[in-house]
Amino acid sequence: MYNSTVIKTIEGPEALPGQSFRLIYDHWAKAKHDRALPPISAISPHSLPKNLLGDCSIMSIEDGPKRFFIRLVGTRIAQALGFDITNTWGDDQPNAEEVKSACIQCVEDRRPLYSEISTAWAGNGYMRSKTLMLPYAGSDNSVRRILSYIQFFYPVM
Description:
By secondary structure, the protein is an alpha+beta fold. Helix content is 22%, strand content 33%. The protein has helices at 19-32, 75-81, 97-109, and strands at 6-9, 56-62, 67-73, 88-89, 113-119, 124-137, 143-153.
């Protein structure tokens, strides 16, 4: 079984695995202008590239203890998982430790994060995901939203 996990901070779009990842990254970079992070007001399903919207999710970050509320899940994500996790808590998903760890790192680093992890938490141990997580700041300048772009794949053994 393919067990390799990749979680890394991204400094620029050239480190990403494909054009669609770079489009989402460029959307985020344009929204932040000269700020460290774009404001949550800049995150909108209506402003995202329409052809990529089905592969995006949006999470809210709640403090004390850190929790992640899944506000929106694209249709292709729900289809790949076999169920829709919109309007659920991320930590309520069984065996989602890798996902939660990546979310925490994105919030703490305040930078885009790329990961390749198992989808075993969703009952798909044979499938993996490539995810770009992009942080957005609230009025207090802390990370309050994460926009994720996700592609699922089956590893070559």
